[in-house]
Each structure stands twice: as C-alpha cells, then as structure tokens.
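Listing 4. Sequential folding, example run.
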Amino acid sequence: MSKPLYTIHPEAYYKVFFHAAKHPHQPVNGVFLGTQKGEKGEVSILDAVPLLHHWTSLSPMMEIGLDLATQHAETSGMKVVGYYQGCERIDDTSLAPVGEKVASRIRTGFEDAVAFVIDGQKIGNGEVALVPYHPLAATTTWRPVSGEPSPFAPGSKFQLSAPNLPSEAVKYVQDQNLHFAFGDFDDHLEDVTIDWLRNRTCLP
C-alpha cells in the first residue's frame, strides 16, 4: 500500500536533535505530533514530545508519558503520528523491540504512523540524522525504509520543510547550548517545573 509524503518541520526536528544532544550516551525516545491532509494525504510532522532518556522497557512511566503526550496532541489540534528513538551506540540505527511496540500502538490510532531512529554518526555533521521505519503489512515488525530515492533525497516520501534544518540544529547546540534548556518526561518527574510537553524555552 502506498505511503503518504511525510514532511518534518523545524520544531519537530530541533526537539529531537536537542534530546539526543542533551543525552548523547543514553537511549532517548519520544513521539511526533502532526496533522494529515485528508485520508492518505501528506503528513506534516509539526512537533515532538520527548519521553525518556533511561528507558529499557515498556514501563509504567512510558505508558503515562504516552497518554499525556496523546492528550496534549489532541488539545493542540494534532495527532500522535510517529515515534522516535536514539540508541546508546552512535553506530546503532536499529529500532529496539520496545520501539516497535510503541510505534505499533501509535499505529492503532493513526494508520500512517512512522518511526525514526536517530543516526548518531550523522547528527553532528549537518546531515539529516533520521532513519525512517515502516511496519510490515499488518504485523508489529518494523523495517527501515529502503529503495530509491533514499529518504530525504529529492523525490523521496520523506522531506524536511527546509533543507537547512540539520545545520541550523547543530548551530543552536554548539553556539547557543539550547539543548541544556530542553527537558523530557524523565526530567519533569525530577523537576515538575520543566514543561516537557512544550519545551518553549529551548526553541530558537
């Protein structure tokens, strides 16, 4: 079945980048929020909500975070449209089993859900540091998107709303340290003043 076009907008890309930059040696994960134009129309990935940075399983904290992120999406006029994950090793771009479970759960509420794994080897050099995954038919198994053109290349079903998002994200981390103002659900549990759902203070 044909998949729609997915376009990642600045707020979503920056937040994922900041999450990975703040916890470079820990696994991180979160969800993407967005909208879709009609049935099977373009999916605009507009925002990201960071969940955890020391997760190992589908824990109660993960469940609570997902529920709160879903409620936040609905009150903001969006849906949870995808999942993202960063691994401990920079050369690991595999979607973990817990990631497959979370992505499959998101898919029950949004048929065109997508998952992304952060590419740690690209994240600091200005390239698009996301590897997209799609589910295999009606299964809960997810595989990297393959074929030509490659993701984020001209003509691909995966695009950025502006080509300079990766290089801009690097500058915001290196020059302005915006990732230090970023917080996920784990951080919020330790300090309830951290607005992990919106993260307005870290946005350029």
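-- end of first protein; second protein begins --
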Amino acid sequence: MTHQANQEQSALWNGRSGNAWIDNRVAIDRMFAPLARFLIDRVRETARRVPSGRLLDVGCGTGGATLAIAGALGERWQCTGVDISAPMIATARSRAAHARVPIEFLSADVQTHDFPAGQFDLVVSRLGVMFFDDPVAAFDNLRTAAKPGAWLHALAWRSPAENPFMTTAERAAVQLLPALPPREPGAPGQFGFAQRERVEAILTAGGWEDVALTPVQFECAFARADLRDYVSRLGPVGQALAGLSPPERERVADVVVQAFTPFIEGDEVRFTAACWHLAARAPA
C-alpha cells in the first residue's frame, strides 16, 4: 500500500463497500459489460497504431474490466490495474491467476502513488476516476505516469437526473432512512464528474491536452435474482442499511426492491447508463 490522501474513500472501499463489490462482482461485471466493450474498442484503436505497450486501468476494482481488456489486447501488451481497495485488488489478483492472465495489480492511491514516469501508452477507467479528494493532483499524477502522446479513455457517470436507476433506492428509502446523506454536487463519489465544464477544467489543469467529453449511453442488465443483494449492500442505501437491525433492514429492503419494478423485464433488471466518455492526450 502507498500513502493515501483520500482517507474517507480508503475507509469506504477497504471496508464494507469493498466487500459488497467483491460479493457482487459477477452481477456488477455483467451489468457494466457494455462499458468494458466500449473501452475495448477505444484501446484497440490505439493498439492498431502501437502494436505493443503498457496500459493502466484506474479504479479497477475486482479486475473484471482489466481482464476483458487484457484479453482483447493480447500478450504483446502489459496491463496494470490499480485501486485504493486492498480487498478488491486481492480478488483481482486471484481472478487473474485463475484465468492465467499476467496482469499486475497495485493496491495504491492513484492521487499519490509514485508511478515510474512515462510508463504507460494508455490509461483507461471504467467508472473509477470520480473519487479523488484532489482530482487535479490525481490527473496530473496520471499524466506524469503516461508516455508523451499517450491517450486517456475513461467513463464517468453523468448527472443523477440522467440516471434514474442509480437513484431509485435513495428516493424509495428517503422517508424510511431520514439520516440518509444527500448527494453533494461535485463531491468525490459516483456523480462527482457529472458537470462537463468542471471535468474539462480538471483534465486541463492536470496537464492533459485534446480534452473531449462526449455523452454516451449503455443498455445494461443483470439477473433479477441479484437485485435484492445489490440494493441492500451497495450505494448510500446499502451503507445505511448496514446499521439497522435485521428485521428493520429487511423491511426497508422490501420497500426499496419494490421501487425497481419499472426496471424489471422477466428474469432481468434492465436500465440505461448515461455516462461521459472522457478522452484526452498527454503532451507529446
């Protein structure tokens, strides 16, 4: 582990939230498979010009997207995944070893980690760049770690209003969980990169060039059987439910799960993910 500036996020992802993601990794990887495929298309564009190189996956979690990208690039590329969550990195290492894919996984804070300068030809992220206390410092550090002319391709959530699925649990539980904290615009977290102008300014201040944010949408799905565990353990509602007695937790979960009825189609839960595609290039 390297020194961590993001103490709140470190506590979150090295604790209950990290363990919840580990336990739900199959559902999460299925849910966000369209996002991984989008990133694979972007990195293949670079790989056609640069047949071998090094790729960094920021906020890699349990390694699902990293494994998919590594498989698409082949053995001539070396992939590295980095995440602040030690438990999720341990899971990612185990998955890579089981799949016999030689990926390096680092348990580190991207904002402060001392990466070797000019190491990476590509920097990617599937929903992992919105959590820094000082995002300018984090993107400056990533730019230093990138080779001159290297590309950055990242996906981040757009606004809560454009992602009703992701706020359904909070809206359903607000009367039952009065202490549920409200989302703070621009704060580190899921919707921290919702505002285009702010994100463009962060990337530019971090030293990246050719900055472009493009709105993209993905049709996502996961098994209906996984819905209750998903809403009961992940996100702000999942954190709040952990502090309740088992009977109270089940009562609130019943209400929250019922609120997702509009997203259920047969045996699946389906929703649209409204994201930004962040593209930028390190100075040549």
